[in-house]
Amino acid sequence: MRTGTADCSTRSRSRDFLASYRRTSLSRPPGIFTRPPFNQPARVYDYKSERECDRHVNVFKDCIRSVQDVSPCGFAALKVTALGNPALLERMSDTIDEVKRLFGKFDERGEGVVGRDEFVRCYEHYFHADEDRLAEILRTLDPHDTGAVDYIAFADTLTPCALPAFTRKCRDAGPLALATPSSDEVALMKRAAQRLRALASEARDRGTKLLVDAEHGKFQPAIDALVLELQREFNDVERTERPVVFNTYQCYLKDAPERIATDLRRSERFGFHFAAKLVRGAYMVHERERAKRLNRPSPIHDTVRDTHRCYDDAVDLLLRHRAHHGTGTEVVIATHKEASVARAVRVMDELDLAPDDDGVHFAQLYGMSDNLTFALGRGGYNAFKYLPYGKVDEVVPYLVRRAQENGDVLGNAAKEMGLLREELRKRFFAR
Predict the structure, then answer these.
(1) What predicted TM-score, i.e. pTM, was given to this entire model?
(2) What's the pLDDT score for residue 327?
(3) Residue 325 — φ and ψ, nearest 5°?
């Protein structure tokens, strides 16, 4: 993403910038020039990244087909930053964050729900709206006439793609108006969503489940929004008995419990199967450094004990939800920590969830914590290995980062070496 200097409130300056851009186009790659509203800097998204994203769709399709060939009931994982320009995803995330902050201003008491009268008062404070338009908005936000609006309805209405229609009525160019995407950015967002939809369709048609990986916090709100859109279609309880699309929750984040609880409520309201992969997280150093650089509180739990507690609580919540609310909820318990695996197994036993329950899955990275994976397999549990798919120079950095940032993997290394030596000794002397 490049930042220009155009003032989009005046056509003359925009023309001057475009002329300048054309004159310098030979010295830099041509791109998609956007004209965001409310005097925001112009942005350029290069065509090369769009072509690369299109190419990655075919790579992920090959991965899905490979999963079908090797493990028909298996999973294919993908990263959304391979399917949409990262700068665009960060911009989309900023938009979503501003919508959430705006709801916080409406919800002055922090109850998660805003009464109609309070909503009207706040809306008229920030937006121009005639009675007919306001009535239409309220019908959308509160279709059952409950007299209240909650965050789920609010966020479902003020999506990044729908936001320009609202912010055109802003009384002032505040943070939400400045976060409003341009029509070109909306088109790029829709293109990224189309790529994801093509992969979800491929996975569904081949009987494979699609895991959407978590990524840096600056991208995650956009990723969550894109996954929600997929889940509403491909996990629809009226269309399928099992979920196709899984979102990933990083439990080293302080807001993980709130996000999981909110998405569970979304699944119940919109009628789709909730499906999640639970991990501890792999971007701890990056997230803390970014928070420090931006002078924000760290989003990461203060202690590793807090992270472990958050992870185990999330596993417990989803296992109980599956046991008590039917078989629609599915969870992938992705961990190398033996204590978390043992705890999950105990909770399954307490809830009378069979080891081979087809909605509970365990997973470890290929080549790591094999002692856990093999023990789970011998016990009849659904155990999977996570195998990076792609060129060696693309997957090795991923594995190095996981090893560096996953202390449990490093902590288990010595134990695994001991187990391997013992196994070799047994096999040697058994000859």
Answers:
(1) 0.85
(2) 76
(3) -125, 25
